[in-house]
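Protein in question filed below.

…
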Amino acid sequence: MELIEKLGDWVNESKNIVVFTGAGVSAESGIPTYRGNDGLWEKYDPEKYANINYFYQDPSYYWNFFKEVRSPVLQKAKPNIAHKSIAKLESLGKLKSVITQNIDGLHKEAGSKNILELHGNTRMFSCIKCKTEYRMDQVNKLLEKHLPPECSKCNSLIRPQVVFFGENLNPIILSRAEKDLSQCDLFIAAGSSLVVQPAASLPLIAKNNGARLAIINIDPTPLDSIADLVINISVSEVFLKIVQGIKS
């Protein structure tokens, strides 16, 4: 409890907070990490459905995974207390941006505005040829006719707007993230194992620019030793208490 109170004091003192979120935040909304604990997730290999080369080799593999596993999970998932609390920090003028590794779109649904999605968004799709964009509900309708789904304008392949294994991060998004890190005074890493690069280097950039570094994660991370504060409990529990303690 003392650690949460300390973080709460830092939040009250700060004016340019950057929150960095990982899979641990979405897990509290019922979204498993790659394999998850469900038998359907075990049926599909992330080295295939998340790999860009395999996607173009056999797009039906990804789209079967999406139809059977990903889409049903996303349709049921709702923003949890952590997502809502982070959005609240922004509405109170405390939060500069939320940088996320997650692709589920729950930060936007919770009300956050300045969101930098490092790995894209699995609720949005586009044609690889004519670039026509589709929402998830539109793609689900196309999947009823064809698998993989075909673009309604040019009949070409549709892909999710995510960064697959084997693809580079969007340089514009990465540049905006680095700019925010150069200006933030408190960097909170929440629900991330901090092992995936280059996203895991962002806390180091913030700290090297003079920001305090707080890590909230159930399990230890490789950056715990350099953090100013480490809290190993539920992300939602921490953010709820922080928002409740914000001074107007």
Notes: The chain has two domains: 1-31+79-119+169-248, 32-76+122-162. DSSP finds twelve helices and nine strands in the chain. The CA atoms of residues 16 and 184 lie 5 Å apart. The radius of gyration is 19 Å.
